[in-house]
Design goal:
The protein has two helices and no strands. The protein is an all-alpha fold.
Length: 61
């Protein structure tokens, strides 16, 4: 596991909490910010996953 996977998962989780809090309180602003943070986190985690796959493939040669 690398730092991008960890940070991405953390951003995704924080974004989900923010989005759900926005839904609970009727704040479209917080819903949008939370959704954006979730997307950013998922993207960063996916980038980390690709880096891990490349690292594993390089070791397998």
């Amino acid at each position: 596991m690398n730092k991008d996977q960890v940070k991405g998962a953390a951003k995704d989780a924080a974004g989900k909490v923010q989005r759900e809090a926005g839904e609970a309180f009727g704040s479209e602003k917080h819903q949008a910010k939370g959704a954006a943070k979730q997307a950013e986190g998922k993207t960063q985690k996916a980038y980390g996953d690709v880096k891990e796959d490349i690292k594993k493939a390089a070791k397998g040669r």
